[in-house]
Recover the amino acids of this structure.
């Protein structure tokens, strides 16, 4: 009898075709759920990457528009420098014709300077200020005992910034006292 019981138990342990199919279906379902989770994760990553790309693109376009006139402004600054040199001539001792010509230059210079200021170009105020390497370029030094060390003593070429970007640093002479 024991043999018969063992056979019955062994038969009970063998899965039926239905149970095999059910087990395979569960495995397939688990596999499909894992694939679905992986695809959802991939979709989220791609979506996030697309949003980041769009944000970077918009920032780049914004930056381009913000500084679109920079190259033209740099060229105009050379013209502005030449006008400053021309109008700095002492016109008290000049003849009447030259004085009128110089007055015309001053009008053009002031108009050009105002138009540049209107679009966001500002002169860097450096004379008498503490040297700032982010906004100034020290091209010479001198020693003046009654001035602080690191103070700008002369502006050799004006510097300018466009909106918040330095487009030309000021070329300056800086005080450098010798320590005793």
């Amino acid at each position: 009898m024991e043999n018969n019981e063992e056979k019955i138990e062994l038969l009970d342990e063998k899965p039926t075709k239905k149970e095999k199919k059910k087990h395979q279906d569960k495995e397939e379902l688990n596999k499909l759920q894992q694939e679905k989770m992986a695809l959802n994760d991939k979709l989220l990553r791609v979506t996030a990457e697309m949003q980041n790309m769009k944000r970077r693109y918009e920032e780049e376009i914004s930056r381009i528009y913000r500084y679109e006139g920079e190259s033209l402004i740099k060229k105009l600054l050379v013209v502005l420098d030449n006008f400053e040199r021309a109008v700095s001539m002492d016109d008290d001792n000049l003849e009447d014709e030259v004085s009128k010509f110089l007055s015309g230059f001053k009008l053009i210079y002031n108009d050009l300077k105002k138009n540049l200021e209107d679009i966001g170009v500002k002169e860097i105020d450096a004379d008498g200020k503490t040297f700032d390497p982010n906004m100034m370029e020290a091209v010479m030094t001198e020693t003046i005992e009654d001035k602080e060390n690191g103070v700008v003593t002369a502006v050799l070429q004006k510097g300018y910034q466009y909106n918040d970007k330095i487009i030309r640093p000021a070329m300056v002479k800086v005080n450098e006292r010798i320590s005793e």
